[in-house]
Amino acid sequence: MSIYDIEVETIQGKIGNLSPYRDQVLLIVNTATKCGFAPQFKGLQKLHDQYKDRGFAVLGFPSGQFANQELESNEEVAEACEINFGVNFPLFAKIDVNGKTAHPLFRLLTSEARGVFGSRAIKWNFTKFLVDRDGRVLKRFGPKDTPESIEGEIRRVLDSSSVHA
Q1: How far apart are CA 32 and CA 23, in angstroms?
Q2: 9: which strand partners?
Q3: Which PANTHER family does this entry report, sorted A to Z (predicted)?
Q4: In the chain, how many domains are there?
Q5: For residue 143, is it within any domain?
């Protein structure tokens, strides 16, 4: 199954898949608005703004699996992200990223890009996955890897790939 075939729900409740992001470089992030890493939202938005014209997008997937650090409703999440962090990159409905109830997207991401010591499990909020224009999961970044610290890697992938005709 391709990353583009996986069903997702936007934070506004619209069901679809990731096919609108085909031919783009993606940074897929599990987020939480009440997490100590939440200030990364601003850096993620900056990356999204800076590189969107080159075919790059940040996709945020809120999750409350880690110390319940996410708000209850998708509406509250969307509002908090916009008001507190100026987020306008695509956000999706709250999901689980680990365990039996893990969303299929995160099952795919964690099987393609393992964590420390080969672990599949996501350890905390703001784990990031870099995906190339062909939907290949290239790299996994931990929560402590700030958007600023991975910008060079994103730029490298953007520079090494071109939009397909």
Answers
A1: 27
A2: 15
A3: GLUTATHIONE PEROXIDASE
A4: 1
A5: yes
Distance of CA 26 to the CA centre of its chain: 8
List pLDDT tens digits, range 51-61.
Answer: 999 999 999 99
Of 44, 41, 9, the closest CA to residue 26 belongs to: 44
Residue 61 lies in a domain: yes
CA dihedral 46, 155, 38, 62 (to 10 degrees): 100
For this structure, is 35 an active site residue?
yes
Contact 141, 130 (CB under 8 A): yes
User: Is the residue at 165 inside a domain?
Assistant: no
- Which tokens belong to 1? 């199954």
Residue 108 lies in domain: 3-160
Catalytic residue (one of 3, 11, 29, 35): 35
Answer yes or no: is 19 within a domain: yes
Task: Tell me the per-residue pLDDT of 11-52, one tens digit each, with 9 for 90 and over.
Answer: 999 999 999 999 999 999 999 998 989 999 999 999 999 999
Measured CA to CA, the distance from residue 40 to residue 144 in angstroms comes to 10
